Amino acid sequence: MADRDRWRVVPAAGGVLWRDAGAALESGGSVAPDTAGSAAASIEVALVHRPKYDDWSLPKGKLLPAEQPIVGGVREVAEETGITAMAGRPLGELRYPVTVDGAVATKVVRYWAMRAQSGRFAPCAEVDQMQWLSPAEAAAALSYDHDRAPLQRLLARPYRTTTVLLVRHGRAGQRSAWLGPDRLRPLDATGQAQAQGVCTVAPCFRPQRVISGDPSRCVDTVAPLAGSIGVPVEIDPTWEEDAHAAHPDNAVRRVGELAEAGSPVVVCSQGGVIPDIIVTLAARDGVDTGSRPAARKGSMWALSFAGSTLIDAEYFPSLLVASPNLA
Question: Which of the chain's ends, N or C, has fewer CB atoms near its CB within 10 Å?
Fold first, then answer.
C-alpha cells in the first residue's frame, strides 16, 4: 500500500445475527423465549447474499458520516436482513484492503453478537437472499475466510449474555462555579449533548430499565433515554460516590443482581464508582480491561454477563457522534 493511501480508512460495522434454531420471528413481536436455557442449545446464524458480488457474507455495511460503529452495525443488520437485533458482546474487527475511487484503502469492520428480536426479510437490490444456518453450515457457506473469525468468536464464549450498561454522567461545568447544592448541579451544553448520545447508543442493547444515582447530573444524563423507551428513571443511592465510599461492595453486588435478572439495563453513576466496579469484576472473572479502567464524563461501559459472571467489558469513551468517514 502506498504511503499516500495509508490514511484512507473505510469504517464499517455489522453483526453475527443469531437466533435459537427454528425460532419464529413475528414482524411486530419478539423472538421466542429460551427453552433450553443453556449456552449449548443449538442456534442459527443469518447470512446474506449480495447479487452485486454473488457472495454470502455476514450482514454489514459502511458507516454513515459521524455514525457510532455500534449504531451503524445495528442499522446495517436491520437494513440487510429486515431483523431488529439486540446487540451483545463485541466480536472484534476485520481489516482488509479495498479500492475506493481507484485508490487502495483499508476497510475496518467492527462486529458484535446480535440476537434477533423481530422482523422479516424482504429482498432488495443490495441483498436478494437471506438464510438461517447452523454455525457449521454458516462457516462452510461464507464466501470469505476472514468472515469466519467473528463467527468463531461468537461460539468461543457464551453468547446468551445480559448487558449492564454503566454510564458516567455528562459534563456539568465546574463545581466551583455552581452556587447551589452540588447534587443539583445541572448538565452544561456538552453534558446535554452527551445525554443525547446515550439516547442514540444505548438502545442498540435494548435496555428495559434505567437506573440512576440521585444527583441531577446523573438523572438528567439518562432521562432522555428513559423517555424514549417509555420507562421511568429509577433512583438508587447505591450508585452515588458517598454511598459507595461507605459501602464499597454494594455496587458490585447490585450489578450482579441486575445481570442475573436477565434483562438489559442502564445505570448512571459517578467517576468514583464505575472504575472500582470494573476493576473488581474483571479481576474476579478474569476479564482483561487493560490498565486502570477509564470512566470519562459521558462515557459508557457495556458489561456482558452469563448469569452473574462477567464475560466481556467494552468501553465507549464517548457517546457523541464519531469521526466522519475518511474515504
Answer: N
Helix count and strand count (H, E) for the chain: 8, 13
Helix (H) or strand (E) run with residue 281 in it: helix 274-285
Any residues with CB less than 8 A from the CB of 41 and at least 6 apart, and which? 20, 21, 34, 35
Maximum Cα interatomic distance, the chain, rounded to a whole number of Å? 65
Do residue 179 and residue 113 come from a single domain?
no
Q: Which three cell numbers stand for residue 123?
A: 429482498
Q: Are the beta carbons of 2 and 99 closer than 8 angstroms?
A: no
CA distances from 89 to 46, 173, 190 (A): 17, 33, 28
- Could you give the CA distance from residue 4 to residue 95 in angstroms, rounded to a whole number? 18
Domain that holds residue 72: 3-156
At residue 12, the 3 state secondary structure works out as strand
Give the single-character DSSP code of 248. T
The last residue of one of the domains, among 156, 171, 201, is 156
109 contacts 13 by C-beta, under 8 angstroms: yes
Residues 32-52, mean pLDDT to the nearest whole number: 69
Cβ 94 vs Cβ 109: under 8 Å: yes
Q: Which residues contact 224 (CB under 8 A, 6 or more apart)?
A: 195, 196, 198, 199
pTM of the model: 0.91
Helix, strand, coil content of the chain in percent (nearest 5): 30, 30, 35
CB within 8 Å of 77: residues ≥ 6 apart: 14, 15, 17, 59, 60, 83, 85, 114
**Backbone phi and psi for residue 150, each to the nearest 5 degrees, phi listed first:** -60, -35
**Counting beta carbons within 10 angstroms of the beta carbon of residue 292, is it exposed (0 to 12), middle (13 to 18) or buried (19 or more)?**
exposed
pLDDT digits (tens, 9 = 90+) for 281-321: 999 999 999 878 999 999 999 999 999 999 999 999 999 86
Q: Pick from 125, 140, 156: which residue ends a domain?
A: 156
Place of cell 431483523: 83
